Amino acid sequence: MKRYVLDASVAAKWYVNEKYSAPALQLAETEPEWIVPDLFFAEVGNVMWKKVRRGEMDEVDAKEAVTLLRRLDFKVYDARTLIDSALRLAFHFHCTVYDGLYLSAAIIENCPFVTADRKFYKIFSEDVLRENILWIEDAV
């Protein structure tokens, strides 16, 4: 079974039809083991909130998406266990600590972090950590 650290940017595409939604859904159909930092749920909720504010989805659909996501079987890392590593990554690579949490989980689990966040992908795909990050289209 494949294992991936799942970025909120990918999971949100399961519920909102936008660029890269098709590969995100294809990846979900492979039913890998999903690994996330606990921050993941707040980040997906924030994406849904933004979509509602922009008029790109209604509140009922946003709430349903978050409910469905919560029901999935994730291996969840407490941010407290990842924070030291995430902070080191943030200082070294000039990324957010939030993004560092995801990459820290990928390093610990020795599996790729799959993302649809181009800026974040670019930071790490050109470094020794490129083995730990995977672009959404390359994951399927």
Provide the fold topology:
Elements: E1 3-6, H1 8-11, H2 21-29, E2 33-37, H3 39-53, H4 59-71, E3 74-77, H5 79-93, H6 97-109, E4 113-115, H7 118-125, E5 133-135
Parallel strand pairs: 1-2, 1-4, 2-3, 4-5
Helix pairs in contact: 3-4, 5-6
Notes on the protein architecture:
The protein has 7 helices and 5 strands, in the order βααβααβααβαβ. With 140 residues, the protein is α/β, with parallel strands linked by helices. It has a single domain (3-39, 74-138), classed as Rossmann fold (3-Layer(aba) Sandwich). Strands 3-2-1-4-5 form a 5-stranded parallel β-sheet, with helices on both faces. β4, α7 (118-125) and β5 form a beta-alpha-beta unit. It is globular and about 40 Å long. The two termini are 14 Å apart. The model has no long low-confidence stretch (mean pLDDT 93).
- Domain module tally: 1
| Overall pLDDT | 93
CATH architecture: 3-Layer(aba) Sandwich
What is the CATH C level class, in words? Alpha Beta
Rounded Rg: 14 Å
Alpha-beta classification:
alpha/beta
* CATH fold category name: Rossmann fold
DSSP strand content: 5-15%
Strand order of the largest sheet: 3-2-1-4-5
- How would you characterize the largest beta sheet? 5 strands, parallel
- Give the H and E element order: EHHEHHEHHEHE
Question: What's the CATH superfamily, by name?
Answer: 5'-nuclease
Question: Unreliable segments (pLDDT under 50, ≥5 consecutive)?
Answer: none
Continuous helix count: 7
The CA-CA distance between the termini, in Å, is 14 Å
User: Helix amount, in percent?
Assistant: 55-70%
Can you count the beta strands?
A: 5
What shape does the CA trace take?
A: globular
